[in-house]
Amino acid sequence: MMSSTPIVVAVLHGGPSSEHEVSIQSASGVIAALRQGGHTVHPVFVDRAGQWHFSPVDSPAATAMPNPLPLWAAIEQLRALRVEVSFLAFHGTYGEDGKIQAALELAGLRYTGSGVTATAVAMDKPLARRVFQGVGVPVAQAVELSTAGLSDLVVAQAAAARVVAALGCPTVVKVPAGGSSVGVEIPQTQAELTQALLRLCPGVDHLLCEQFIGGVELTSGVIEGASGQLISLPIVEIVPKGAAFFDYNAKYGNQTDEIVPARISPAHAQLVADLGVRAHLALGCRGVSRTDIILRHDGQPFVLETNTLPGLTAMSLLPKAAEAAGYSYLDLVQAIIAAALRHQS
């Protein structure tokens, strides 16, 4: 935990991302907790056009101001406000893909979460799985598809046939850099896979198709302790109510049972916790991460992806795991800040 000494924190949130609203929810919790902890909090809202809004210290999240700033002017404003650390409550592209981290680093400003490389790699699902494969972290079999020409029905049908021949059905199809399960589909047949490829190919250079693995869906949270040691939080079991998988609506529409600790054996819980740490280290994460894992029915785990800025909404998995480990929401937020201060002193 960080000391109780009050500091000046900017909570950056919003942004031109499909997870704009989720980011606002996370920021609302962080802002309230930090104020409760006696810290000076500057809510900094980034609108969907990428303009930055600096509101008064007593404002709520997502407050739009009359004269928003572009990025580099906003960086100067953070410096003028003597912000000691920026708490990144972004989710998805723009704030979770390394771009904002790079801008803050170039300006010499401290921020929470992982650095530029770790965030960029973790956000790129095909690249992250190559990193995992390189260090022996188990991942599902996969086929990467270039989207060049994939908008043509005949090309999409041929690509779907190749994927089914390699991976079978059902198949998991992902855009390379989506979050909160946005841009993920699980077609059950080759015909459905063709349509999924047609839907998901616009705006991206490639798609990732992975073998579907049935089993228990779990998540393994990792935070840094006061001396920098990595702490595995209790494993959370995710059981969507009626949804095919843990998609956006299941995550944020109260359509999921999230069970802490997960209903798995102690040996399997340790195995999953260790995988969370291994994934965190493989990507070079710092401060906090949350790795999603499928435990196949035969006991073999497979890493799905690692989130370097896990959600901090009332429904998010990381706060629930932290609570089960004895951390209050404020404890968790302050631990994330403490890691940032320690790594970027």
Structure, described:
The protein is α+β, with helices and mostly antiparallel strands and 345 residues long. The chain has 3 domains: 8-111, Rossmann fold (3-Layer(aba) Sandwich); 122-138 and 214-343, ATP-grasp fold, B domain (D-amino Acid Aminotransferase, Chain A, domain 1), CATH 3.30.470; 142-211, ATP-grasp fold, A domain (Dna Ligase, domain 1). 36% of the residues lie in helices and 22% in strands. It contains 11 helices and 14 strands. The strands form 3 sheets. Strands 9, 10, 11, 12, 13 and 14 form a 6-stranded antiparallel sheet that branches. Strands 3-2-1-4 form a 4-stranded mixed sheet, sandwiched between helices. The two termini are 16 Å apart. The mean pLDDT is 93.
Secondary structure elements and their pairing?
Elements lengths: L7 E7 L5 H17 L3 E7 L5 E3 L16 H10 L4 E4 L10 H8 L9 H8 L1 H10 L7 E5 L6 H15 L3 E4 L9 E2 L4 H11 L5 E6 L3 E10 L5 E3 L3 E5 L7 H5 L3 E4 L6 H18 L4 E9 L4 E7 L9 H8 L4 H15 L2
Parallel strand pairs: 1-2, 1-4
Antiparallel strand pairs: 2-3, 5-8, 6-7, 6-8, 9-10, 9-11, 9-13, 11-12, 13-14
Helix pairs in contact: 1-11, 6-7
Reading the helices and strands in chain order gives: EHEEHEHHHEHEEHEEEEHEHEEHH
Domain count: the total is 3
Helix content: 25-40%
> Can you name the CATH architecture of the largest domain?
2-Layer Sandwich
CATH class of the largest domain: Alpha Beta
| First-to-last CA distance | 16 Å
User: CATH topology of the largest domain, which one?
Assistant: D-amino Acid Aminotransferase, Chain A, domain 1
Task: Tell me the fraction of residues in β-strands, as a range.
Answer: 15-25%
Low-confidence stretches: none
Determine the mean pLDDT: 93
What would the principal axes of the Cα set say about the shape?
A: globular
